[in-house]
């Protein structure tokens, strides 16, 4: 079951809140791409050797499924924020587990606050990218659909194209910083980004056709 024009996230959320298990499964599945894009910027590089973005997303979705009754919101914006906070907590726990060992001090809370701010900022940047492709004002359902299409399209790119898009548009890095992260010259990083943008447009067209 996938999200179609007749099955916007808003509709699925309403059905899920009414106890429809299939709608909840479909709703959570529609957020896989979005959570994966955010997780690429959430995971410390030193943690990625032990926990992949897919693992973090899967863990977060399982937790969201288990605790869905605790979700008190009514809109997809609130639901998106709720999922983002679950992702942040799991990312912080991964940092604590793999980097801080058993030490429990102020660093954990600092890490959680840092990750929370980073996730909110990443979401805002990702959200702003949808406006570029939007021709007019969007309803809440259309807005979430745009975010889903964009996230899924990014995830379908090759790793190097996906990484440069995430670094530039999700983490908000300058090309000089991207060059260092990707072990390229600044000019090469810019050229890679330009090619990635073209591929992303193609991927979004394909994804929109599916949606």
Describe the structure.
With 211 residues, this protein is an all-alpha fold. It folds into 2 domains: 131 residues, Rna Polymerase Sigma Factor, Chain: A (Orthogonal Bundle), CATH 1.10.1740; 56 residues, Winged helix-like DNA-binding domain superfamily/Winged helix DNA-binding domain (Arc Repressor Mutant, subunit A), CATH 1.10.10. It is 75% helix and 0% strand. It has 11 helices and no strands. The protein is globular, with a radius of gyration of 17 Å.
What is the structure about, briefly put?
This is RNA polymerase sigma-E type, Rhodopirellula baltica. The protein is mainly α.
> Which stretches of 5+ consecutive residues score pLDDT under 50?
1-6
Per DSSP E runs of 2 or more residues, the count of β-strands stands at 0
- Please identify which CATH superfamily of the largest domain we are dealing with: RNA polymerase sigma factor, region 2, helix turn helix motif
Assign an overall shape.
Answer: globular
Q: Give helix % range.
A: over 70%
CA radius of gyration? 17 Å
GO molecular function: DNA binding; sigma factor activity
Keywords: DNA-binding, Sigma factor, Transcription, Transcription regulation
Domain RNA polymerase sigma factor 70 region 4 type: 150-200
Pfam family, one: Sigma70_r4_2
């Amino acid at each position: 079951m996938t999200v179609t024009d007749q099955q916007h996230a808003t509709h699925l959320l309403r059905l899920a809140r009414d106890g429809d298990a299939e709608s909840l499964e479909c709703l959570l599945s529609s957020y896989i791409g979005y959570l994966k894009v955010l997780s690429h910027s959430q995971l410390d590089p030193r943690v990625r050797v032990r926990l992949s973005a897919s693992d973090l997303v899967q863990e977060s979705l399982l937790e969201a499924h288990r605790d869905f009754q605790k979700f008190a919101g009514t809109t997809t914006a609130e639901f998106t924020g709720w999922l983002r906070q679950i992702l942040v907590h799991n990312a912080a726990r991964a940092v604590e587990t793999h980097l801080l060992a058993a030490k429990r001090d102020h660093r954990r809370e600092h890490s959680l606050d840092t990750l929370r701010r980073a996730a909110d900022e990443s979401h805002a940047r990702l959200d702003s990218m949808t406006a570029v492709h939007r021709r007019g004002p969007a309803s809440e359902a259309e807005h979430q659909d745009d975010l889903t299409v964009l996230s899924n399209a990014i995830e379908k790119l090759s790793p190097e194209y996906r990484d440069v898009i995430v670094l530039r548009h999700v983490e908000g890095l300058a090309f000089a910083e991207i060059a260092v992260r990707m072990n390229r010259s600044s000019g090469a990083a810019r050229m890679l980004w330009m090619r990635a943008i073209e591929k992303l447009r193609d991927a979004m067209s394909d994804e929109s056709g599916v949606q």
